[in-house]
Structures are given as C-alpha cells and as structure tokens.
UniProtKB/TrEMBL annotation:
GO terms for biological process: methylation. The keyword Methyltransferase applies. InterPro entries: Met_Synth_C/arc, UROD/MetE-like_sf. Pfam families: Meth_synt_2. NCBIfam families: PRK06520.1. It is an enzyme of class 2 (transferase). Gene3D superfamilies: 3.20.20.210. Keywords: Methyltransferase, Transferase. This is 5-methyltetrahydropteroyltriglutamate--homocysteine S-methyltransferase. The keyword Methyltransferase applies.
Amino acid sequence: MTTTNTLKKAPFKADHVGSFLRPERLKKARLQKENGEITAEELRKIEDEEIIRLVESQKEAGLKVVTDGELRRKLWHFDFLSGFDGVEYIETEVGVEFKGVKRKASGIHVNDKIKFSTHYMIEDFKFLHSIAGDAVAKFAIPSPNMLLHRATFEDGVYTNNEELVNDLITAYQDVIQALYDEGCRYLQLDDTSWAAFLSEEGRESLKERGLDPETTVQLNARILNESISKRPDDLLVTMHICRGNFRSTYFSSGGYEEVSETIFGGLDVDGLFLEFDDERSGGFEPLRHVNRPDLSIVLGLITSKYGELESPESIKERIAEAAKYVPLEQLCLSPQCGFASTEEGNLLTEEQQWEKVRHVISIAEDVWQ
C-alpha cells in the first residue's frame, strides 16, 4: 500500500496512540448531564471547548498528529461499535477482569443485521478535522474484530458465521469510506483481541469458548484485511495491538511470537503500534517476520500507565536493539497505549501525561535527527 506525499511521514517518528486524560471540567459536566442538570447540547459545547484546548496542547507539545483524545467516549470500543445499525450498548452483569481491578459491567449486543447507514462519530471526526489546522488529524476506532470477539448476539439474527463476517466487513468498508469522504487520511484501528493469542492462558480461554486459536487468528486477519481492502490509496491505516489498559492495569501478557508471522507478514496495514514497555510484551525477535519495507513499526517503549520518566539512554538502546530486526528508518516511537482508554483514565496527572509526550518527542528527535 502506498501513500501520498502529504502523509509520507505518518506514522510519525514521534507518535501517540490517541486517548488523553479527561479534564476535571469534562468529568463534572458528564455527571451533570447524567443527573439532568445540563442538556446534551450544553455537554457537547463543553466537549468541543475541551477538545479545542487538547488539540492546542498537543501542538504545543510538538506533536505533528492530533486526536480528539477520545474525550467524548466512555469506552474506546463499545461507544463506536454501538453506532452501527443492529448493535446496541448494554449493561451487563459482569465486567472485564483486569489485574487487581474490574471495569464497570457493560457490553454490546447485536439485535439485528449489522450495517452502516450513518454513524454519529463521523460528526466527531468532522469537528476534529475542522480544528486540526496544519497538524494531521488522526481518528482511532476499534478494529472490526472487537465486535466479533466482544458482542453477544440475539438468537436468529445470524444463522451462520459467514453471513455475520460479511456484514461486519461491509459495515467497516462503508464507515471507513464515510470518514475518508469527510477528510480522514490517518485512521488507527485499536485491537485487544490479538492478546488472546499471545499467551497459553489466552489460547486456553479461546478453546473453552469452542474456538480453535489458529483458525481464529486467520479469521482475525481476514476480517481486518478485507475491511480495509477498499480504502483509497491516500488513506493511511495503522493498527494498535493492546493487552488491556484500565486505570494503569492490564488483562493479559505474552510476546508476539505465537502469531508473529500473521501480524508482521500477513496484515495489510501501513503501520503497527506495538506494546513494548515492559517484560509482559516479550522481546523484539518476532520483528524478524516483518517482510515489507513500507510497514512502519511504532515501538511503544514509553509507558502511559505511570508518570515516572524512563531513562532516555535505555530507550535509545532498546530502539537500537529493535533495529537489528527492522531497519531504523521503518521504526517510530510512541507511548505503549493511550492515557485513558476509558473515561476513568490511568493513574498519572495531566502534567505527567504531557511530560511523557514531550519525552517521546525528545528521544525521537535524538534518534532520527
């Protein structure tokens, strides 16, 4: 996949996954909306103002790519997925179990055929695009695999898996085209479903659900590749593979080796954002399966889970280690995940968040000067 000159440098050598801590003013406004103290229009106005402030902060920090911080979302994935026809946001009895903490119980339920007719988040992107100025506006959405792996299904809606998969792929092709039509040229797909393949525990969990890990890996790859197969040549698409990010905790561990040939040699994305911030992610050896000179590998070496800054020299050493497997010019640097995949956010302050962003930029400037 080739891109035009305007996006030749994206993913940028100093990039980021996209979500930022929710400002206290916004948290308060959301509670006021839930309590009936302000209207949806008043909340939207406050969201707009805080996103404008966030975009300016990203530029001031030195970023060339900006997002809306996902400030309008409660959750990084369910909020988007429930925007498709046939998919609804629901409260559930059990929340996802992270290490030492449990997230609020919620989910998505497919009650009719999945399709795209319109999507409310297109307006969210239009607003971001209108205020991005000379920065590249990146929009992050969940991978289509997240619906397949996280949704519950109404009996009788789909009588076979192939029909479901085809509808899901078509819905994503349509929403991607709609975002492109509104000016999106840098799209990021976030995906935690790959984490199930990275550890023995995760693979056993798949088997308990009646899923064969190898067959499911190939289905994941097919759904992703076909969902982006009709994208215009000047739309850059990256994918972020995550092991969980809720209040500075995680839900899975494991290196990339088990599925490295598929991830690094079988996906048609333009770049991969990869977690490499601690021992849970394994080593860089799986990068030996990168078989395309146009595939960018964004090393998530700076953690978003706590505020202490990593040693610049140790990060540079790790970049040099990764460069043994992938040419340095194909590598980039970012935090390993967003700062607030959910509205609660990770356990660091806003100032520490910006220190992390500036840390990424400073190190990248030294390495790729």
